[in-house]
Amino acid sequence: MALDDLKQVLPDYAKDLKLNLGSVIGNSELPQQQLWGTVLSCAIASRSGIVLRALEPEARGNLSDEAYTAAKSAAAVMAMNNVFYRTRHLLSDPEYGTLRAGLRMNVIGNPGVDKADFELWSLAVSAINGCGMCLDSHEQVLRKAGVDRETIQEAFKIASVIQAVGTTLEAEAQLQG
């Protein structure tokens, strides 16, 4: 299933999602690597097998092997970090913030692609996973690297649409099943 097929399986009540999906992917001004790395990492983070199976082949075709692996790595490491740092932030005891994390996350320092691309993908996954601490951290790194707000917003727009499409299609699959 490709992007057009994914749009076709969206129910009528989700017409806005169908239009937004075509827009955020089909009309994006992001360079191909940033776009498809964001799409792939967000498809993974959406936890929707339907969305991942639909978008992964096109992402695979538009990414180098290194970028493909890095996008999957961003989704993987942020799945861990978003839970850890969101929990640390939400706990009322500030002492947790002084403790060593003790979690391996070497891929962030050496992702195998341009650091700004990896940070963009990490930010998009953090948007899906709802970790404000991680969002702030990745946004600051991106801004310091000269990435403009429009590019950053483009990434979390993609994240929001992919997440909504995944939620909708998984709900429909449950209702049908």
Give the helices and strands, then pairings.
Layout: H1 3-9, H2 15-26, H3 32-45, H4 49-62, H5 65-90, H6 106-109, H7 115-129, H8 132-144, H9 149-176
Helix pairs in contact: 1-2, 2-9, 3-4, 3-5, 3-7, 3-9, 5-7, 7-8, 7-9
CATH level-3 fold name: AhpD-like
Compressed to H and E, one letter per element, the order equals HHHHHHHHH
Report the principal-axis shape.
globular
Number of strands: 0
Say what oligomer this is. Answer: single chain
CATH C-level category: Mainly Alpha
CATH homology superfamily name: AhpD-like
Stretches where pLDDT falls below 50 for ≥5 residues? Answer: none
Helix content: over 70%
Structural class: mainly alpha
Tell me what portion of residues adopts beta-strand conformation. Answer: under 5%
* Structure annotation, total helices: 9
State the CATH architecture. Answer: Up-down Bundle
**What's the N-to-C terminus distance?**
20 Å
Overall radius of gyration:
16 Å
- Total count of domains: 1
User: Please, what is the average pLDDT?
Assistant: 96
Largest sheet: none
Brief synopsis:
Keywords: Antioxidant, Disulfide bond, Oxidoreductase, Peroxidase, Redox-active center. The chain has 177 residues and is mainly α.
Can you walk me through this structure?
The chain has one domain (32-94, 106-176): AhpD-like. The protein is 75% helix and 0% strand. The model has no long low-confidence stretch (mean pLDDT 96). The protein has helices spanning 3-9, 15-26, 32-45, 49-62, 65-90, 106-109, 115-129, 132-144, 149-176. It contains nine helices and no strands. It has 177 residues and is an all-alpha fold. Helix 3 packs antiparallel against helix 4 and helix 3 packs parallel to helix 9. Keywords: Antioxidant, Disulfide bond, Oxidoreductase, Peroxidase, Redox-active center.
